[in-house]
Amino acid sequence: MNPLAFVEAGLQAGLFASRRTLCSAPAPALPGCPLRQCFSFSFSFLFSANSALSASGAIVPEKIDGKYWMYWLGTAPSTPGETYKTDQMGLSYSTDLIHWTEATTTPVLPRRAGKFDSRVVEPGPLPILTEQGIVLIYNGADDNLVYRTGIAIFDRNDPRKLLSRSDTPIFAPEKEWEKVGQVPNVVFVEGMVQMKERFLFYYGAADKYIGVAEARAVTP
Question: Cα separation of 100 and 98, whole Å?
């Protein structure tokens, strides 16, 4: 399946990285749809010369200014005094969903010292387009690698412009099976389905289980 048709069909694609190739994973029940659709995704990572493609991407489901936009995770080197690398969010655009160009020279959603996203800032499910802006559910981790969930809202006409962002997480590990597993203290939202007046969010828990949480759809 052509990746352009794949997104235009409204499928909520999960994206994962294999070296420098991103692959979309469409629903296997669709007839004639391959297991995965791979496409070139080579970057210079302008916000850090030593950055590297890490794990994930979330594509805005409609064109804005004649382009498709993808929020993605890039791993940057540690800053002076730190002993670990950090993951921050970048942004790229494409006209064909195959060739991508970075849209910013700095992270579009950077990490924040002392907050729940001080070490990792990673996109989650497909962004939600509203009249008020682009709503992006994202996953953040603190210096102790406790993973929680936040919301970022970007300008509807300019995906590079951040309008607001969660000061505190909206979702965090609370249940025993979210705290104990292969990697402790992790909730990681990656899938989303809207069912009438509610959203279902599918998430990984402690890198061992899959859970689902729900939230009511609020109309302004």
Answer: 6
H or E stretch covering 72: strand 68-76
- pTM comes to 0.78
CA-based nearest residue to 94, from 3, 28, 186: 3
Q: How far is 187 from 147, CA to CA, in rounded Å? A: 6
Is it the case that residue 64 has pLDDT exceeding 90?
Answer: yes
Give the whole-angstrom CA distance, residue 68 versus residue 36.
19
Structural domains in the chain, CATH included, are 3-216 (2.115.10.20)
**In the numeric block, which tokens belong to residue 136?**
């992006």
pLDDT (tens digit per residue) in 91-120? 999 998 888 888 988 889 999 999 999 999
- What is the CB neighbour count within 10 angstroms for residue 103? 18
